[in-house]
């Protein structure tokens, strides 16, 4: 009887130990899982914080560059405003300047009317004609005459630059002395504008240098303008 009770007690003790051991292992496993989860969560947070820090550093650098550019642009604006103010100071009173121009134009118009009215009487007497001009224009006669000549030259210059050559891509320009100097520069400029250029060079080196500096529409030929034979060969070549 006692032996049986002892065995039952031992069996229960063993079962209790196994249950405690199983619970201990489960608790350890749960604690390990919890620890790993916490570590993973912390690692993700640290990685995200590192990425955010790098983004912040990049944004700070970008902001510094933009601030530097804005500072330079502001300095340029200030310089432009100061230059504009200086220009206004140099121009002076625009209204008075316009009135002065208007008075000068009226004086010129009056002088032209008087020229037209009295021109016939002054044709045969050049000296009195010049006296009449100076009497009308006063002490600023030479100023008005000079201004008129300058205006005429200006419009003549505009008219000259407005002239254009039609179909110049189909036209040929023959230039001599193209090894160096003015002829060399003229060939380059005409080639850039699209003309077909025939360049006469004295030496092969000059011709080769010009070919390397220009396009396919420029052709070179060896030409000595002091030699009739060279001129004849060039005429046959063209």
TrEMBL record:
Extract the Gene3D superfamilies matched here: NAD(P)-binding Rossmann-like Domain (3.40.50.720)
Q: Which reaction does it catalyse?
A: L-lysyl-[protein] + acetyl-CoA = N(6)-acetyl-L-lysyl-[protein] + CoA + H(+)
For this record, an example GO cellular component is: BLOC-1 complex
- Cited Pfam families: adh_short (PF00106), GCN5L1 (PF06320)
Record keywords:
Membrane, Transmembrane, Transmembrane helix
TM ranges are: 141-159
Family named by the database record: Belongs to the BLOC1S1 family.
Q: Which PANTHER family match?
A: BIOGENESIS OF LYSOSOME-RELATED ORGANELLES COMPLEX 1 SUBUNIT 1, BLOC-1 COMPLEX SUBUNIT 1
This protein is called Biogenesis of lysosome-related organelles complex 1 subunit 1
């Amino acid at each position: 009887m006692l032996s049986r009770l002892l065995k039952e007690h031992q069996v229960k003790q063993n079962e209790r130990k196994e249950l405690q051991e199983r619970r201990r292992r489960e608790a350890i496993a749960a604690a390990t899982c919890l620890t790993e989860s916490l570590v993973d969560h912390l690692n993700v947070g640290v990685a995200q914080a590192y990425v955010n820090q790098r983004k912040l550093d990049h944004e700070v650098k970008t902001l510094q560059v933009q601030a530097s550019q804005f500072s330079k642009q502001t300095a340029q604006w200030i310089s432009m405003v100061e230059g504009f103010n200086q220009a206004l100071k140099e121009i002076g009173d625009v209204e008075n300047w316009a009135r002065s121009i208007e008075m000068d134009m009226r004086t010129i118009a009056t002088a032209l009317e008087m020229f037209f009215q009295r021109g016939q009487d002054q044709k045969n007497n050049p000296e009195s004609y010049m006296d009449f001009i100076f009497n009308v224009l006063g002490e600023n006669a030479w100023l008005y005459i000079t201004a008129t000549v300058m205006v005429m030259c200006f419009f003549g210059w505009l008219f000259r630059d407005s002239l254009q050559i039609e179909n110049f891509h189909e036209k040929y320009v023959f230039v001599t002395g193209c090894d160096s100097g003015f002829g060399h520069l003229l060939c380059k400029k005409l080639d850039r504008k699209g003309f077909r250029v025939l360049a006469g060079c004295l030496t092969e080196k000059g011709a080769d240098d010009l070919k390397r500096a220009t396009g396919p529409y420029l052709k070179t030929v060896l030409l000595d303008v002091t030699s009739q034979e060279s001129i004849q060969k060039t005429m046959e070549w063209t």
